[in-house]
Amino acid sequence: MSVRLQKYLADCGVASRRASEKLIAGGMVTVNGAVVTEMGVLIDPGADRVAYNGKPVVNNIKPVYIMLNKPRGYVTTARDQFGRLAVTDLVNLNERLFPVGRLDCDTSGLLILTNDGGLAHKLTHPKFTVEKTYIATVAGVPAAGAFDALTLGVDIGGYVTQPARVEILETRGEHTDVKIIISEGKNRQVKKMCAAIGYPSIRLTRTAVGRLTLGTLKEGQWRRLTRAETDYLQNM
Fold it and tell me: pTM for the complete prediction?
C-alpha cells in the first residue's frame, strides 16, 4: 500500500510529520537514490528505498510514549540556534523521540514525546479537536465577564479562535489564575487570546491533554504512559 513520504518518515520515528516535511523540502531525503523535495510523493514501503541524511529509513521501531512535565527554559525543537536546552535532553532514552506539538520556551507543563508519527499527527491535527487545558497567570484583576469573549472566539491576528472554556480560579494581589481549555493549537494561542482581551499572560502551564493530566509528576520529571493511557490516545 502506498503512503505519503512524510507520513512514512514519521511512522519510522525520523521526526513528526510536520518536521518531516521540512526535511524533505530541505533536500535531506532520498527515494531510490534520488533527492525528493516536493510534498505529496507516494512511496511503497515494501519496494522503495528511503534514506535520510544518507542512512536507510526502515520502520522497525517499537513505539514509545512519554509524558514530560516540561520546565520553563526548554525548547521543543530538536535544534536551537541560541543553544538553549531541548526537552529531549530531559528524557534519557536511546530511542529517537520527538515532542507532540509545541510548548513555548517560557511555558511549562504536560508534553507528550513519542516516536509514533501517526499518534503525533492525530493529537496535533485540527480536525481531531483534542482538548488542552492550561492554567494562565494573567496580569490584573479581571472585571466581571472579562473573559466571556474567549468563550465566543477572539481575533488573535487575522484568525478568530474557536470557543474556549474558561474558569477564573484565584486572584492573588494583582495577578489572577485562569483555567483555559482549547481544542486548537495555533502558535502561542493562549497567550495571544489573553493579550487580545487586555489581560496578558505572565506565566502559562499546560496541565492536561484530553483526560491525561500531570498528576503528581514534578517539573522536569517524565514517565512512560500506561497501556490504558496510550489506548485512550489512540482511540480519541
Answer: 0.77
